[in-house]
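Feature request, filed as a ticket because there's no other form

It would be nice if the structure record came with a short human-readable summary line next to the tokens. Right now we just get the raw output. Example of a typical job, pasted below so the devs can see what we mean:
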Amino acid sequence: MSWTLTEEHLEDLARGAAVLGTGGGGDPYVGRLLVRQAIREHGPVTVLDPSEVGDEDLVVPTAQMGAPTVVHEKLPSGAEPVLALRTLEKHLGRRASATMPIECGGINSMIPLVVGARLGLPVVDADGMGRAFPELQMETFGVYGVPGSPMAIGGERGETTVIDTGTDNRRMEWLARGITIRLGGVAHIAEYAMSGAEVKRTAVPRTLSLALTVGRTIREARERNLDPVAELGTALGETLYGHLRVLFRGKVSDVERRTEAGFARGRAQATSFDGDHKLELLFQNENLLALVDGEVRCLVPDLICVLESESGEPITTETLRYGQRIVVAGISTPQLMRTPEALATFGPAAFGLPYEFTPVEELQ
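Raw output as currently delivered:
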């Protein structure tokens, strides 16, 4: 069923998107402000269930790309993703029937809502990552046969570029990353234009609704003086995500972070509250690997989520700081993201990690 997204949904949605972003996907607070402004100026957004999209409809996902650390210094106006969408429509010679997130984490759960409000377009309740990933070829859309090209890029000063690499999504990412760097480290894009039938076949369904549920669950747990992480685990048990496991509780002891080649890369370390155990996180925009005492406890594509230990509020990789008291949770991804084809695109080997993927629920 379709539903109407209003300003009242945004706080919970942003919180849930930050959890599903696994530390990356851009600052959801910035995205929340952009959507709020767009809704106040243009009205609420219609969110479509994937089943309600016509098979022949043209759906054009929209997003922000670049290093999350840069967004704090280069705040978007909201016009950039609209520019990207209109540029791609002109190139294709056809207007979009709807837009959709490419990922359900961080600011990129919000960018399509900005576009939807500004243009009066519905937004499909689905995405192509089921979380956030750092590179454009890392999409279930591409895994299951939808090319990312042609894609359009819009800059803050009205610059536009169209990239067409055919079915080579990796080369599309490489070229788009170079342009984004030259636009100052962040840009807005429209890509993976597809039919409604392809949405139903390739997208991770109902992830905007999931983000709203995650954010609401954490808030309501706090209001009722319950453990937010335990409540979140119960809520996820009724979804495609299924399993949540607490990997670590402790205090951040060190963070190494750098902006490099258009990504925020680094690692973080933490010590358990009793001082007996050590955590190491490796990230590239998003958290990719969690080691506890040198042993793998969770790895990509499963979600590694860092939460504030008392409130359950998500902590992004660009806001990790020494001394923060954290709980780290591992969340299982849908089976759509665990097939051999999917793991070849965004599993451990795609990031150069020397580990075979093992589902978080099977790791001890």
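Something like this underneath would help us a lot:
The CA atoms of residues 349 and 355 lie 7 Å apart.
The longest helix spans residues 207-223.
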